[in-house]
Amino acid sequence: MDCLFCWSLSKPLYLLLFFCSFSCIANAAFNLSTISFDEGYSPLFGDGNLVRSPNGRSARLLLDRFTGAGFISSKMYKYGFFSANVKLPGDYTAGLCVAFYTSNGDVFEKNHDELDFEFLGNTEGKPWRFQTNLYGNGSTHRGREERYRLWFDPSKEFHRYSILWTAKKIIFYIDDVPIREVIRNKEMGGEYPSKPMSLYATIWDASSWATSGGKYKVNYKYAPFVSEFKDFVLEGCPSDPIEEFPSFDCHESDARLETADYAAITRRQRSSMRRFRQRYMYYSYCYDSLRYPVPPPECVVIPAEKDRFRDTGRLKFGGSHQGRKRRSRRRGRIQVSSTEYDPDV
Fold it and tell me: Residues in domain GH16 (predicted)?
């Protein structure tokens, strides 16, 4: 959509500003170099449920009653930019979880780092929801999740989901709209992810928790459930976490990350991020004073934003939430046994 076209529509001004902002930002694409599947990834699990395209530029992950599927980056990275265009399954998707994330849980089982996009399915006619999260040094007892809705149907067309991770900050993007920024500070200490991680993509049965706290399960009458990935981007410094003397000098790679166009949020992007969070974020751990009487050190509490949330971290105009035990999550991920909260219950 042309940015100027928005102004010709007879809608309330705040809606015009909101959608025009996203349209304009989305048209200002980042300068990215894409790779083929085999250039950066390897199968993780699922055998025949991971289907690569004939030209190797895309891959499908399927979930059926026998197994889900996943792939993993062939290398681990000490900081990077990880991105792909993704299309999610449609129709009835309750109980599904499609994840695009970085982790080193296979190497550091007790003190792993992790950065998550987790897309949570829903009953037919209801929209997908998703959450972002981060763990540093095994801080699974201290979840940092936020949950959101989307301004589009992610099953109808591809959208780009990206994670920027540097020594100074973490930014989650949808298309070119930043939706969450975490600035490192010394109070975070080891809870800021800082060890080399791999990039993962998975689809799996999360019936025990993904939709309304497990009320709605995966219905295999609608299988196979298909998620599609293409236009892969892996930017960063390859790193072996157990090498005594690293074989790669990361200074040049880190400098490229710090100066890339996706590393700095422009004034227009920051405005779009603020509007996204005002309209689509429905849970934030930073405002969950029952869970965290003192907000974690990276939280930036915005009084006008805080006023919209209950002391549970949930929006005042809907829902309740409670603690529960989260069960083993997906193949290729470590088990998180600490108590977590589900804002959709």
Answer: 28-229
